[in-house]
Amino acid sequence: MKPKKPQKPKKPLIVYYAITMLILFALNAFVFPSFLKQQITKVDYSTFLSQVEKGAVSQVEINDNQINFFANDESGTKKAYTTGKVSDPELVNRLLDKGVQFSQVFPQETSPIMSFFLTWILPIVIFFGIGQLLTSQIQKKMGGGMSPMSFGKSKAKIYVEAQTGKTFADVAGQDEAKEALMEIVDFLHNPAKYTAIGANLPKGALLVGPPGTGKTLLAKSVAGEAKVPFFSISGSEFVEMFVGMGAAKVRDLFQQANEKAPCIVFIDEIDTIGKKRGNGNFGGNDEREQTLNQLLTEMDGFDGRKGVVILAATNRPESLDAALLRPGRFDRRIPVELPDLAGREAILKVHAKIVKMEETIDYNAIARATSGASGADLANIINEGALRAVKLGRTRVNQSDLEESVEVVIAGYQRKGAVISQKEKEIIAYHEIGHALVAAKQTDSAPVHKITIIPRTSGALGYTMQVDESERVLMSKEEAFNKITTFTGGRAAEELIFNTFTSGASNDIEQATKIARSMVTRLGMSKNFDMMALETVNNPYLGGDTSLNCSSETATKIDDEVLSLIKYAHEKAIGILNANMDKLHELARYLLEKETITGEEFMTILSR
């Protein structure tokens, strides 16, 4: 089949109206007047009288202000002439004497109905049509399609049956969430077996999790599995400038849902309208508060036996109003967390189905290297691997493409054109080997996977990648302390070899301080504070910002405790490097020569 030619965008209707008007104006201004000038010759009154006297005039038509007549020219050709009318009482007698046919034309009187139509009705119709045309064009440009008669209408997108194109087979790494939603799907398919025992369909299910974990994808897959009408709308679309419009949209949405029942209604980013009341965010007549109140009322008002299910998604559950989360409204809170090792491997395989991959791909190795990655991150890794394969002129993605794409997502692209002096390269090499050597000489540290001194676009001048051999869900005090020690290994190597401090350890310092503070304030790994909670995580899904819950005196003690932990880890790192100074020099020289070495190469040299 031949590829279809891209269709040109249609021009707005008002453009054609404007072109037509311009053509008419041009014809009226240039063509018609010149045409009339060519057909009718204008003469003075004396010439008209002389033509009558000669007997050349054959027919005369007298109007209020002019005289039109036909006369033969010198060649005998009949032509049309016109002249101005003057007061001449003898004109009629002259025409009768010469036998000229003449008549007087009186202005035609317009009927009152036609006059009223032309004066009042036609202008109104014309202006109304132009107004409607301009309004429709403005709506298309703004993209909202809102008109004064549709302020209270919801803009929910309706997907009927499986038109979303997604099923649970397209969702991987969220088995618990799929199991909870599958029960809702089964209820919509077979309500009799649930109602027979007296069970009611849950009115609402709240999908909670970090960005990129697949909350919207899960909602679309529910629609594909249930094969029922699916309403999709964002919480921000309820927020309007006029008070009461958001509440009207909520009423309209639930009215449509009741008419289409059984169906599923999905509200994305529900925290936009579902924020807590009474904390100063809302006023008594605030638009968002009225929208939230209407949503609460509608969720109480509709009959759950009809099969209307409300799905909502958010990554800020702590900001939602308690009335919205109580049983009877959102009966279920379904966590959609970051995938584990098995989940990441399954997600990689799902996204790899649409990409040409080599059969020798080790998805488990990529999954182990992407701990903490979301489904969106993993999809991006597969896509980056495909782009790299095309760039290198290959038709299939191999293992090296995926490994490089992992580094691209973590640290950015390689800065191949970066100019770094030999002295700075040596410092960077010793810095990275310091991290790797300290990590390898500790028992509770993840194995070294890769070491490189090639700069990246994220600002990193080099990095040491560690990959756990298995998934870990708990972290002991020893493991946390060893992480801090590993982070201080780079600065320790700089001190021992070059007797200096550089800015290359800035990110290490931040990470070490963050872990040490968590050990003291939140994880109960401090002897001085025991199991006392001193810090609260404000939002676990968006950055994990924290706030202290203690006095200023206690905050000072916390700082001292954190400092002592980091100092002790730093001293331990210096001790490890002093004990392995020969290996530090040998590995640094090897890294300078190769620029990038694998974990196997590193361990081979270390174990000689």
From TrEMBL:
Domain AAA+ ATPase positions: 201-340
EC number: 3.4.24.-
Bilayer disposition of the protein: Multi-pass membrane protein
Entry note: cofactor: Binds 1 zinc ion per subunit.
Residue sites binding Zn(2+) per the record: 431, 435, 508
Spans through the membrane: 12-36, 113-134
Keyword rRNA-binding: no
Molecular function per GO: ATP binding; ATP hydrolysis activity; ATP-dependent peptidase activity; metalloendopeptidase activity; zinc ion binding
Assembly mode: Homohexamer.
Designated name of the protein: ATP-dependent zinc metalloprotease FtsH
The species this protein was found in: Desulfitobacterium metallireducens DSM 15288
The gene coding this protein: ftsH
